[in-house]
Amino acid sequence: MSSYDVYGMGAALVDTEIEVDDGFLADATIEKGVMTLVDEPRQHTLLGLLEQHLVYARRASGGSGANSVIATRYFGGTAFYSCKVADDENGRFYLADMERAGVHTNRLAAGATGVTGKCLVMITPDAERTMNTFLGVSSTLSAEDIDPVALADSRFLYIEGYLVTSPSARAAAVRARELAEAAGVRTALSFSDPGIVAHFREGLAEMLGGGVDLIFCNGAEALEWSGAETIEAAADSLRSIAKSFAITLGAEGALVFDGHQYHRIAPHPVRAIDTNGAGDMFAGAYLYALARGHGAAAAGALACRAAAELVTHYGPRLSGPAHQRLRDEWESSRS
Domain for residue 100, yes or no? Predict the structure, then answer.
């Protein structure tokens, strides 16, 4: 029996969430709805402009992949996370926060010189999230940060698509996929962001190699990758690079493919106030359910329900008890 349900790889970022309006984004020349990489001076400038807008000031270990593996852990699964932080206060906090969540990490990555990465997440009244990210030492994640023993002892390898923006992190993702394939570990990758697909397509293709077992993406990312005009056509295109996949469709639920047939996952109508982390939550819940032996339709049901619950709160994560309640409700609905 594997020690870990999910072995994740991704950026290690300390998040700050901020409520803004469309006018602020326009005045600050920030592209809405996507992740934009910025340098540290630009991030300091934005923090100064946003000083009066903070609505979620509690620090948390963030990054898309981290959010997903923590969700898997809170649902009752087991998880390991490869990342890189600096030997600074934020870096030490980050690893301690992951430990509190019950996620094992490659702790040797804490000794890097430099600055731990940070992400500003700006939420507009329509609940859309816009991210400006300073990667810091996360951009130097490399194959040396992989724990091959833990990886081989996992059910899934989950690679965050954002890693494609760094040459060394992209190479690490490729190496991790190769190690997983050799060990018989199922491979999963997220497209992460429409801008990532648009600007780093060749790098994503390198990370995908000859194909992965599972892809996570939203509708916009699926359309961008495939060049298709409909979700159905985009889904057919994804079958050439993945044995299975899940396409999240916001208020319309999700479309998942289990390798044999498609399943439409019904949405859970809610009043969304913050979509930050919804895709991460979906992936974490979906991987948890698959790792525990459930099929794609059942996994999609839990994932859609969890993502719907998340968007009714500020912040990219729910509490541990909230995950357990959702899991228990999902299990009861299947009995």
Answer: yes
Cα angle: 147, vertex 149, 153; to 5 degrees? 115
Given this model, what pLDDT does residue 15 score?
82
Whole-number average pLDDT of the chain: 92
Surface-to-core class of residue 260, CB atoms within 10 Å of its CB (0-12 exposed, 13-18 middle, 19+ buried): exposed
Answer whether residue 234 is part of any domain.
yes
Q: How confident is the model at residue 58 (pLDDT cuts 50, 70, 90)?
A: low
Residue type for position 204: L
Q: Considering only CA atoms, which of 20, 182, 12, 178 is closest in space to residue 81?
A: 12
**268-308 pLDDT tens trace:** 999 988 888 899 999 999 999 999 999 999 999 999 999 99
Can you give the residue range of the structural domain that contains 264?
Answer: 4-10+63-114+140-334
| Domain assignment present for 21 | no
Give the total number of structural domains in the chain: 1
Q: Largest Cα–Cα distance of the chain, in whole Å?
A: 54
User: Is 132 part of a structural domain of the chain?
Assistant: no
Show Cβ contacts of residue 261 under 8 Å, excluding neighbours closer than 6 positions.
none
Q: What is the CATH number of the domain that holds 328?
A: 3.40.1190.20
Rounded to the nearest 10 degrees, the angle between the axes of helix 64-74 and helix 278-291 is 50
Interatomic CA distance for residues 251 and 233, integer angstroms: 20
Q: Count other Cβ atoms within 10 Å, centred on residue 53.
A: 14
Q: Is the pLDDT of residue 107 over 80?
A: no
- Interatomic CA distance for residues 197 and 3, integer angstroms: 32
Q: Which of 143, 179, 186, 183 is CA-nearest to residue 163?
A: 143
Lowest mean pLDDT among 43-52, 82-91, 175-184: 43-52
Residue 266 DSSP class: P
Q: Quote the tokens at residue 156.
A: 């899934």
